[in-house]
Design brief:
The chain has 363 residues and is mainly beta. The protein has helices spanning 24-27, 70-76, 93-99, 123-130, 162-165, 218-221; strands at 11-14, 19-21, 55-60, 66-69, 79-87, 113-122, 138-147, 154-161, 171-176, 179-180, 190-192, 205-211, 225-226, 242-243, 250-255, 261-263, 265-274, 281-287, 295-296, 298-299, 309-317, 320-330, 355-362. Strand 7 and strand 8 form a beta hairpin. The site of ligand MTE has 18 residues, from strand 7.
């Protein structure tokens, strides 16, 4: 068992803050990702919080500000379970960095994405107990960790629109895959925002604020934004660029692994695909000749409406160097762009280009 109870073969990008993803092949075959395989993304050191002294404040534009203990949360509100995929907005950034460097950012491969069963209470119910005013258009979350490397130092935070916050599937969760939520994943309680980029699922949440405007946290106002390619992120004004919220249409090949040697003839290719909110993955195509000819993959029934789709296709490989390519389509008939070059952005978010692996096939 490796750091933070993760599997030994995690790719650890940084030990502190702990940023790690599994080998892509470890995600294959598991509609629900085992907890020891689930990626971990942190902007500061992981806080250890005593569940008995943890308190959650609900404040801002509410009629009745609340201060809740874990026991209050668990006893006052109905419990609810959601299967949701979390994906880091920086997933697959490494391919953007191959186009042009992105200094200071983690070169995530394609496994900064995982799926779990999350259990807790609905944020909607907790907000209803506090009575938000009609002016509360955004719900902001603040975590207990201190992010490192930003000035001024501050806790991690972010917000979601009030409509999303009250939609019923946004959770304050204390269980993951039917076990207590691990410390590295936000214990005692984290927010789960299904269908949004992972950054909005704030861990170690200790404050929920109903407010007129989106969060002014660094992680909402300056980070997690798609800036125009020529913008300097160091001088871009707060609020510039496109703020990330809804998850993107994306896919990646999980097996065979990049660079592996395989046998000529039929080979099984597997992977995942995700679609944005209010859309679903409609089709996945796989090519064994760099995108000239495509075969439609078989898709598994996803483990829930907020979860990824795992897919598989058998392709016939000729001898020599082969490039396998995958692309997904959603229910609006949109598909992924072919190349990462036009998607390059200064913070390296949302690489949704076709996924490729390179193999050597021999008899
Ligand atoms: N919450 C806090 N408090 N601190 C963080 O650094 N990282 C966010 C989000 N919530 C973060 C956080 C990001 S960028 C992602 S992608 C997800 O948590 C990752 O969740 P995980 O570490 O449980 O996989």
């Amino acid at each position: 068992m490796g750091a933070w109870n993760k599997r030994d073969d995690m790719l650890i990008h940084t030990a502190e803050p702990f940023n790690a993803e599994p080998p892509p092949a470890a995600l294959a075959g598991h509609p629900i990702t085992p907890t020891d395989t689930f990626y971990s993304r942190n902007h500061g050191n992981i806080p250890r919080i005593d569940p008995a002294s943890w308190r959650l404040s609900v404040d801002g534009l509410v009629e009745r500000p609340l201060e809740l203990s874990l026991a209050d949360l668990q006893s006052r509100f109905e419990h609810h379970t959601v299967v949701a995929t979390l994906a880091c907005a920086g997933n697959r950034r490494g391919e953007l960095m191959a186009v042009r460097d992105i200094p200071g950012q983690t070169p995530w491969r394609s496994a900064a994405i995982s799926t779990a069963r999350w259990t807790g209470v609905r944020l909607r119910d907790v907000l209803a107990a506090a009575g938000p005013s009609g002016e509360a258009h955004h719900i902001a979350f603040t975590g207990a960790d201190r992010a490192t490397g930003i000035d001024p130092a501050q806790p991690f935070g972010g917000s979601i629109p009030a409509d999303k916050a009250t939609s019923g599937d946004v959770l304050l969760a204390w269980r993951m895959n039917d076990e207590p939520l691990p410390v590295a994943h936000g214990a005692p309680v984290r927010v789960i925002v299904p269908g949004y980029v992972g950054a909005r699922s704030v861990k170690w949440v200790e404050r929920i604020t109903a407010q007129r405007h989106p969060s002014s946290s660094y992680f909402q106002a300056l980070d997690y934004r798609v800036l125009p390619a020529e913008t300097d992120p160091g001088t871009a004004p707060a609020g510039s660029g496109l703020s990330l919220s809804v998850a993107a249409l994306n896919s990646a090949i999980l097996t065979p692994s990049e660079g592996s040697h395989v046998l000529v003839g039929p080979n099984l290719v597997t992977g995942y695909a995700t679609a944005g909110e209010h859309r679903a993955v409609a089709r996945v195509d796989v090519s064994a000749d760099g995108g000239k000819n495509w075969r439609v993959a078989d898709m598994e029934h996803p483990p829930g409406p907020w979860a990824w789709v795992l897919w598989r296709a058998t392709v016939n490989l000729p001898p020599g160097r082969v490039e396998i390519t995958a692309r997904a389509w959603d229910t609006s008939a949109a598909t992924q762009p072919e190349h990462p070059e036009p998607l390059w952005n200064p913070l390296g978010y949302l690489n949704t280009s076709w996924s490729n692996v390179h193999l050597i096939a021999a008899l």
